[in-house]
Amino acid sequence: MFALADPQRVSKVLTAAGWPPRFDKLDRDLDMGAGRGLEEAVVQSTQIDAVNSWLRGQPGEVVTAAVASIREALAEHLDGASVRLRGAMWLVSSAPA
Protein backbone atom coordinates (compact mmCIF):
# COMPACT_ATOMS: atom_id res chain seq x y z
CA MET A 1 0.00 0.00 0.00
CA PHE A 2 2.81 2.38 0.82
CA ALA A 3 5.42 1.12 -1.66
CA LEU A 4 5.60 4.57 -3.23
CA ALA A 5 5.55 6.55 0.02
CA ASP A 6 9.26 7.33 -0.15
CA PRO A 7 9.82 10.39 -2.40
CA GLN A 8 13.43 9.34 -3.05
CA ARG A 9 12.29 5.96 -4.34
CA VAL A 10 9.62 7.53 -6.53
CA SER A 11 12.12 10.03 -7.87
CA LYS A 12 14.66 7.29 -8.62
CA VAL A 13 12.11 5.08 -10.42
CA LEU A 14 10.61 7.88 -12.53
CA THR A 15 13.97 9.47 -13.34
CA ALA A 16 15.40 6.09 -14.42
CA ALA A 17 12.40 5.72 -16.73
CA GLY A 18 13.11 9.13 -18.27
CA TRP A 19 10.30 10.92 -16.44
CA PRO A 20 11.87 13.23 -13.82
CA PRO A 21 9.17 14.00 -11.25
CA ARG A 22 7.91 17.17 -9.67
CA PHE A 23 6.52 16.92 -6.13
CA ASP A 24 3.91 19.37 -4.88
CA LYS A 25 2.69 19.20 -1.28
CA LEU A 26 -1.07 18.71 -1.21
CA ASP A 27 -2.49 18.91 2.31
CA ARG A 28 -6.25 18.68 2.51
CA ASP A 29 -8.98 17.77 4.94
CA LEU A 30 -10.23 14.30 4.13
CA ASP A 31 -13.78 13.28 4.94
CA MET A 32 -13.39 9.74 6.26
CA GLY A 33 -17.13 9.11 5.97
CA ALA A 34 -17.64 10.73 2.55
CA GLY A 35 -20.43 12.90 3.97
CA ARG A 36 -22.29 9.88 5.38
CA GLY A 37 -21.48 10.44 9.04
CA LEU A 38 -19.57 8.87 11.88
CA GLU A 39 -20.61 5.26 11.36
CA GLU A 40 -19.47 5.31 7.72
CA ALA A 41 -16.16 6.82 8.81
CA VAL A 42 -15.74 3.97 11.30
CA VAL A 43 -16.49 1.40 8.58
CA GLN A 44 -14.03 3.05 6.18
CA SER A 45 -11.36 3.24 8.87
CA THR A 46 -11.66 -0.44 9.70
CA GLN A 47 -11.36 -1.39 6.03
CA ILE A 48 -7.97 0.31 5.60
CA ASP A 49 -5.55 -2.53 4.97
CA ALA A 50 -3.33 -2.01 8.02
CA VAL A 51 -6.28 -1.85 10.43
CA ASN A 52 -8.26 -4.56 8.64
CA SER A 53 -5.36 -7.01 8.63
CA TRP A 54 -4.83 -6.44 12.35
CA LEU A 55 -8.53 -6.91 13.16
CA ARG A 56 -8.81 -10.15 11.18
CA GLY A 57 -8.45 -13.13 13.43
CA GLN A 58 -8.77 -11.16 16.66
CA PRO A 59 -11.27 -12.32 19.27
CA GLY A 60 -14.66 -10.62 19.08
CA GLU A 61 -14.14 -8.62 22.26
CA VAL A 62 -10.86 -7.22 20.91
CA VAL A 63 -12.53 -6.20 17.64
CA THR A 64 -15.42 -4.62 19.54
CA ALA A 65 -13.04 -2.65 21.77
CA ALA A 66 -10.91 -1.53 18.81
CA VAL A 67 -13.94 -0.36 16.82
CA ALA A 68 -15.27 1.50 19.87
CA SER A 69 -11.88 3.20 20.26
CA ILE A 70 -11.83 4.18 16.58
CA ARG A 71 -15.37 5.55 16.87
CA GLU A 72 -14.42 7.61 19.94
CA ALA A 73 -11.32 9.03 18.23
CA LEU A 74 -13.21 9.90 15.03
CA ALA A 75 -16.13 11.46 16.93
CA GLU A 76 -13.78 14.27 17.99
CA HIS A 77 -13.53 15.24 14.29
CA LEU A 78 -17.24 15.04 13.48
CA ASP A 79 -18.52 18.12 11.66
CA GLY A 80 -22.16 17.62 10.70
CA ALA A 81 -22.20 14.56 8.44
CA SER A 82 -18.44 14.75 7.82
CA VAL A 83 -15.54 13.35 9.78
CA ARG A 84 -12.64 15.56 8.77
CA LEU A 85 -9.05 14.47 9.22
CA ARG A 86 -6.06 16.40 7.92
CA GLY A 87 -4.31 14.54 5.13
CA ALA A 88 -0.73 15.14 4.05
CA MET A 89 -0.11 14.07 0.47
CA TRP A 90 2.16 14.67 -2.45
CA LEU A 91 0.93 15.38 -5.95
CA VAL A 92 3.52 13.85 -8.27
CA SER A 93 3.64 14.99 -11.88
CA SER A 94 6.14 14.34 -14.62
CA ALA A 95 6.96 14.82 -18.27
CA PRO A 96 9.45 12.96 -20.40
CA ALA A 97 12.99 14.27 -20.14
Write a structural description.
This protein is α+β, with helices and mostly antiparallel strands. It has one domain (21-94). Helices cover 44% and strands 27% of the residues. It is built from 4 helices and 3 strands, in the order H-E-H-H-H-E-E. It has a 3-stranded antiparallel beta sheet. Helix 2 (38-47) packs across helix 4 (60-75). The longest helix is centred in the last third of the chain and has 16 residues, at 60-75. The protein is elongated and about 55 Å long. The mean pLDDT is 92.
Name the features.
single chain, 97 residues, alpha+beta, 3 strands
Radius of gyration, in angstroms, nearest whole number: 18 Å
Q: Would you tell me the structural class of the helices and strands? A: alpha+beta
Q: Could you give the order of strands across the largest sheet?
A: 1-3-2
User: What is the N-to-C order of secondary-structure elements (H for helix, E for strand)?
Assistant: HEHHHEE
Largest sheet: 3 strands, antiparallel
Average pLDDT = 92
Domain module tally: 1
How many strands appear in the DSSP assignment?
A: 3
Q: With helices defined by DSSP (H or I, 4 residues minimum), what is the helix count?
A: 4
Q: Which bin fits the share of residues in helices?
A: 40-55%
Distance between the termini: 28 Å
Residue stretches low in confidence (pLDDT < 50, at least 5 long) are none
Query: Strand-residue fraction?
Result: 25-35%
Looking at the structure, what is the overall shape? Answer: elongated
